[in-house]
Amino acid sequence: MRSDSLPIGDAAWRARERARRRREGLLQGGLAVLLIAVVAGLAFNTAANLEARQIRSGFAFLGGQAGFDVGEALIEYSARDTYLRAFVAGMLNTLRVATAGIVLATALGVAIGLARLALHPLVAGVAAVWVEVSRNIPLLILLLCIYLVVTELLPDATSPLALAGLALLSKQGLQIAVPGHGGLAATLALAASLLAAVAGFVMARRRVTSLGAAAAALLAATVAGSIAWLAVGMIGGWSRPQIEGFLINGGASLTPEFLALWLGLSFFTSGAIAEIVRAGAEAVPRGQWHAALALGMTRGQTISSVIFPQGLRLAIPPLASQYMNLTKNSSLAVIIGYPDLVSVANTSINQNGQALEAIVVIMAVYLTLNLAISAVMNVLNARVTRAPR
Known about the structure:
- The chain is an alpha+beta fold.
- It has twelve helices and eight strands.
- The chain has helices spanning 8-52, 83-115, 121-136, 139-153, 182-205, 210-236, 256-282, 286-294, 299-329, 333-336, 341-352, 355-385; strands at residues 161-163, 167-170, 173-176, 178-179, 238-239, 242-244, 247-249, 252-254.
- It has a four-stranded antiparallel sheet with strand order 1-2-3-8. A two-stranded antiparallel ribbon has the order 4-5. It has a two-stranded antiparallel sheet with strand order 6-7.
- It is globular, with a radius of gyration of 27 Å.
């Protein structure tokens, strides 16, 4: 229907809507121009001040030789490499501890959160103590405490604690046995995990909800990856840690700095995740509990099959915030000497004095990591909150 054939009331309403949209567009455009002008002014002013003080600026320094070592790196790195490669090594260390922390904190948080729902007073009490301790100790103090325990109370490398003949724990860190062909084992384990995850999700999706299918895929990936890892070790042999002089060689090593940071971040975040899980479960109407129990389900079956899946829908948004907080809190690694992104940036600043550029790199990396976590959690949230067909 043309606008000239509309009733007078409808035509006037359309005209007011177009005028309102024009006003809003002009206002937003003006604010955008003002913001760009402010940012450009700050940039020009900063550049002028740096030039007046004869301070180098720009990111060309990333192509220069770093000249310093990184204590531990997931990629090959030496002091002869560039600053860019040093920042990549630091970023991978940050990503490594953040990923491991998210996995362990989630496992602990879910277990403690469900334990708080237990009817046994001892189990619920221990879980409550865990939550209160983890939430009320500053993370910095917690990291220093764990690091001192690891470096001071553990035995020397000459007399380590043996763990089932597969690992050695000492002041040097945790050395664990790995397959002799570590690269092949990791590749096969990853491939098997991906295939098993896809197969598990497809098969489970036909019978259960998306949340149950995701859990089945995770379980299938874990089992398949573990079997592939063990199979390579049994066929090709194992590289076991052994005491050689004053050091422990062989196997894979987790340094004391990584262990302290990993355990500290996981413990600190697990308390908040436990409360999120508990609150999500208690937000489920009591009628769901009564209906499941009336059908003959045990309390454990009720929680795992009825309450927890519904509570998780409410828990995912705050879980995303906790995962992002854990990633940002990993920047405290510099306090205990773990060579993360911030540590590499600090060393770079001390050598070349380009603090602004190094800080911009840090900000960009953490922003990218948190946006990636947010995107993944938003997809998961949309998946579990979608109405069943």
